[in-house]
Design goal:
Layout lengths: L1 H123 L1
Length: about 120
């Protein structure tokens, strides 16, 4: 009977050791869970902070783009006006060129027609 009692005592001792070991494992697992949760919270906090920074930067960029868009619209109006001036200037130069050609042709025609008379007047003088 002593051997059965010894076996039972040994089994109870083994069970007690296993239960203590399970308690230690649970404590370790709980500490690991707390540490993991803490790190996850810190990581999420960092992510949220970065997202908040990005939102702020995007807002700043949007306002700057709006200002630049207004400036570009103003510059576009000026550029369009200068293009009109250029087109009008080219037209005026074309008219002046045609008029100059007409005047030049008239002078050449006049001189060619009266050349003999001009030479005679110059030689006589």
């Amino acid at each position: 009977m002593a051997t059965q009692l010894d076996d039972i005592s040994e089994a109870i001792g083994q069970l007690r050791a296993d239960v203590r070991h399970l308690g230690v494992k649970f404590d370790t697992a709980e500490r690991n869970l707390v540490e993991t949760t803490k790190r996850a919270d810190e990581h999420r906090s960092t992510i949220h902070r970065r997202v908040d920074d990005l939102i702020e930067e995007v807002g700043t960029i949007k306002s700057k783009v709006a200002v630049i868009d207004d400036t570009v619209q103003d510059a576009k109006q000026v550029t369009d006006e200068v293009k009109l001036w250029k087109q009008r200037g080219i037209g005026a130069l074309a008219v002046a060129g045609i008029a100059g050609s007409a005047v030049g042709a008239t002078v050449v025609g006049f001189v060619a027609y009266w050349w003999d008379a001009i030479l005679r007047a110059l030689r006589a003088a």
